[in-house]
Design brief:
This protein is mainly alpha-helical. It has a two-stranded antiparallel ribbon with strand order 1-2. It is built from 4 helices and 4 strands. Strand 1 and strand 2 form a beta hairpin.
């Protein structure tokens, strides 16, 4: 044994063979990877997934309806104007009636409601 700085070094611990065969595991994994990469191009999807559904082009006479519960609205990051608007959406009043109530031009309200509809928060009747 060698003495270094007053300490005796011990021989390295013996290498213990694992309970499983690493070479066999490597061969099996490699063959699975080769099988997956040999899938013919005709078996791979070629059509892109469908895009988002078109948003309804709302008019002043349309009635906005909440698409989710009021309790779930707190999970969304919304502007204060969007929150104020959604508090007034009751499923009965038209966009024009809401615009009058909120003292906002109907076109501005429609733009905001269409954005909320794209996010899935509002639908139309």
């Amino acid at each position: 044994m060698t003495k270094r700085q007053g300490k005796t070094s011990a021989p390295p611990p013996p290498t213990v063979k694992p309970a499983w065969d690493p070479e066999r595991y490597a061969r099996e994994t490699d063959s699975r990877i080769r099988l997956e990469s040999t899938v013919p191009p005709s078996a791979r999807p070629t059509v892109p997934p469908p895009g988002p559904e078109p948003v309804h082009m709302a008019r002043g006479t349309d009635v906005p309806v909440l698409a989710i519960s009021r309790d779930d609205l707190e999970w969304f990051e919304l502007s204060s104007s969007s929150r104020d608007l959604l508090r007034q959406v009751n499923g009965r009043d038209t966009v024009e009636a809401l615009a009058t109530l909120l003292r906002v031009p109907p076109e501005q309200l429609l733009t905001e409601l269409e954005g909320l509809a794209r996010e899935g928060l509002v639908t139309w009747r």
